[in-house]
Amino acid sequence: MSTRYHLLIVLTGAATLFVGCENGPSEPASPSAVENASPAVVTQPARLASTRQAQHAVTMFDACDPETFNAALGAGTCTRSGGVRFEKFLEQLGLHHSIGAWHFAPPNVTMRIGERLVATNRGGEVHTFTEVEEFGGGIVPDLNELTGLPTVAPECTRLAPGDFLQPGASSSEVEDEAGVEKYQCCIHPWMRAEVRIAQK
Ligand SMILES: [Cu+2]
Question: Do 170 and 176 contact (CB within 8 A), yes or no?
């Protein structure tokens, strides 16, 4: 048995005891609770294997200025510090149909079937990382207009609550089909990434 594997058993045991403690001092972890943890220990090597799976990261950035964004759109809209003032944001968007500080990086990813794509929001606003058949407008008509994208991507009209990624949140999926997949933010539809997935 490797040291690493042994360490996992110790950690899993500790976690079980911790859960037991959360139930209150009147319910100490019973021997049966520890026994029940055994199957989880057996599956640990499989989980270890999955963490070795190749991952490709896309990071979502913005540069919202909390003072002006929160004043215009509501408290809590922007949680970073400093950045582009809201009126400047709208002006730039109207001029250029996009604003570079709001972007997915990298915009192009090449990966293989079975590998994992992880998108993480490192901005100060909520974003989505939504797979679309064709890039299009999002769910905010004013931003669609300024971006020159009047046709809303249908996928953006079918978002679930979990699709809205708060600052710091990630979404992740294992790509299981070869080809090119398009991802966009359904709030800021100029935020885009193209992912090329090759056969294994
Ligand atoms: Cu966005």
Answer: no
Residue 43 has pLDDT above 70, yes or no: no
Element (H, E) at 39: helix 38-51
The pTM of the full predicted model, rounded to 2 decimals, is 0.74
In which band, very low, low, confident or very high, does the pLDDT at 175 lie, cut at 50, 70 and 90?
Answer: very high
- Ligand 1 centroid, distance to 121 Cα (angstroms): 9
CA distances in angstroms from 149 to 157, 167, 190, listed in the order given: 14, 25, 9
53 Cα–ligand 1 center, Å: 28
Radius of gyration of the chain from its Cα atoms, rounded to whole angstroms: 22
Q: Is 182 exposed, middle or buried (0-12, 13-18, 19+ CB in 10 A)?
A: middle
Q: pLDDT tens, 67-99?
A: 999 999 999 999 999 899 999 999 999 999 999
30-34, 155-159, 194-198: segment of lowest average pLDDT: 30-34
Whole-number Å distance, alpha carbon 187 to ligand 1 midpoint, is: 5
Q: How far apart are CA 132 and CA 154, in angstroms?
A: 8
Q: How far is the CA of 126 from the centre of ligand 1 (A)?
A: 6
Q: For residue 68, report the distance from its CA to the centre of ligand 1, in Å.
A: 17
- Report the separation in Å between the CA atom of 155 and the middle of ligand 1, taken as the mean of its atom positions: 15
Would you say 60 and 165 are in contact if contact means Cβ atoms under 8 Å apart?
yes
